[in-house]
Amino acid sequence: MGRLTAIVLGSAAGGAFPQWNCRCPVCELAWRGDPRVKPRTQASLAVSAGDGRWTLINASPDLSQQIRATPALHPKELRGSPIDAVVLTGAEIDQIAGLLSLREGTPFTLLATPASHAGVAANAMFAAMTAMTRRAVAPGERFTLSGGIEATLFIVPGKLPLYLEGDDPELAVETASNVGIEFVREGARLVYVPGAAGVTPAMRERFARADAVLFDGTLYTDDEMQRAGVGQKTGRRMGHMPIAGADGTLKALEGIAARRIFIHVNNTNPIHVAGSAERAAVEAAGWQVAEDGMEIVL
Q1: pLDDT digit string, tens, across residues 19-33
Q2: pTM to 2 decimal places
Q3: 232 DSSP 8-state letter
C-alpha cells in the first residue's frame, strides 16, 4: 500500500447502473448481460493511509452491498469496523442514505459542512444514529483523518439537494451545500468531486497540483436524458456539467497532468459502454471511467 490509497466503492450516479426502473439504450445492454458494460453501484469512495482504518466519502444507499464487496471494510473483530469516519460532499439522498446502514452501535465520526449537517439533521430518522459523532468542517479548513491524512473541503459550483431546492433553484452557485475534497499525505494528493456544475479557476489550479482527480462524469451531453426519453431536465439543471462540448469537462480540464477519472456516471451515459465512440473520446483525452472496486494507490 502506498502513501495514500483510495477504493472506488461505487461509480454510478443516483439510481446506480442499470437503474432499477430504466430500459434506456445503455441500461438495456446491462439487462441483457452485454459484456461491454459492467453494473455499478452509487458513487462513494474509501480512503486509507494503510493503517487499517478507512474514511468513507459519502454514504450511498448501496453502502451495505459495497462493504460486503470490499474485504478491507469487513469487520475484524466480534463487533467493530475499520470505518473510522464518513465525510460528506453534500446532503443529496444518494450521499447520506447509507448512513442508516451504519446504525448498529459502532462509533464513527461524520464530518461535513454546517449546510450538509443541517440536511442530515432535518430528517428525524438520523436521530437513531446515537453512535455517530457529528463534526462540522468549514470549506477551506484543513482537518486530519486517520493515518495522518490531511483533508480540505472546497466549494464547487452546484445547487441544493433535490429535496431542498424548491420551485426555482439557483443553479451553479458556490455554497457550502456542494463541495469537493482534497486529501494529502506525504506529498501524495488526491481530489474527489462527484458533482460539479462548472470548473472555477481555483478548482483548476487545485487539480493541477494533484496526482489523481476523480470528477463528475454524470452526463456525456447536457440534453442526454431528454434525448433518451427518460427525463425532462438537462444536466446543468441538475447541477452537473456535461463531459462533451465547448463548455464541457473535457475542454475545461484539458492539459491537466493528473490522472483523471470520471465518477458518478449516470445510467444513460454511453461512456459506460466499452468500445463506444463516447468512451473512445474520453480515453483519447486521457481520462478513465471509474469502476466499482477500482483502487488508486499514490
Answers
A1: 999 999 999 999 999
A2: 0.95
A3: S
